[in-house]
Amino acid sequence: MPAELPETPETPGTAKLSDGVVTLLPPPADEDTGAGDPVRSFGIRAGRCVGSVGLRFAAAGLAHGDVDVTYRLHPDARGRGFATRAVLLACAHARCEGARRAVIQTPADDPAAAAVARRAGFLRRGQISHRDGTVLDWYVRELARA
User: Fold this and answer.
1) What is the pLDDT, as a whole number, of residue 125?
2) Which of 28, 126, 128, 144 is deepest in the core (most CB within 10 A)?
3) Beta-carbon neighbour count of residue 50 at 10 Å?
C-alpha cells in the first residue's frame, strides 16, 4: 500500500496538496462553492496543467463516509504516474475532510483507468451495471487515519 502523505506543519491534520512532482490546485475562490459543497475539483499540475481530479462526498450508491474519486489527464501526460500521484493527494485531502473510504469507478473496458486505481492502493470489489448497459468496475481504498 502506498505511503501516507505527511500533514502540513502549518495546519496539523490537513493534507499537503503537493508531493513535489504533482500539485493539486483548487479552483479560484470565486468558483469555490464553499466547504459544505459535496464536490471538490482540483487541477493537476506537473510543471503545467495536465488534468483534473475530483472528489464527490455525496452521491447515489455511496455510504456515509465514502468519497467518489474521479480523474482525467490530457493524452500527452499519460503514462508518467501523474494520475496515481494526484489520486493519492486527493485521498489524503478527503481523509482530512472526514472521508473514511475512497471509491473509484472505472469503465470495465478501460485498463489504464483501472491501473491507476490499483497503483493508488485501491482494491477491486466488483462491478456495477447501469440500465444503459454501461458496466463499471468498483474499486475501494480505506482512508484510515495514521
Assistant:
1) 96
2) 128
3) 20
Quick one: which of 92, 103, 121 has its CA closest to 58? 103
Higher pLDDT, 144 or 15: 144
Q: How many residues are recorded in the chain?
A: 146
DSSP the chain: -PPPPPBPSSSTTSB-SB-SS-EEEPPPTTT---TT-SEEEEEEESSSEEEEEEEESS-TTPPTTEEEEEEEE-GGGTTSSHHHHHHHHHHHHHHHTT--EEEEEEETT-HHHHHHHHHTT-EEEEEEE-TTS-EEEEEEEE----
Strand order from edge to edge, sheet including 135-142: 23-25, 39-45, 49-56, 66-73, 101-107, 135-142, 123-129
Give the distance, in angstroms, between the CA of residue 50 and the centroid of all CA atoms in the same chain: 15
| 139 Cβ neighbours under 8 A, 6+ residues apart | 103, 104, 105, 106, 114, 117, 118, 122, 123, 124, 125
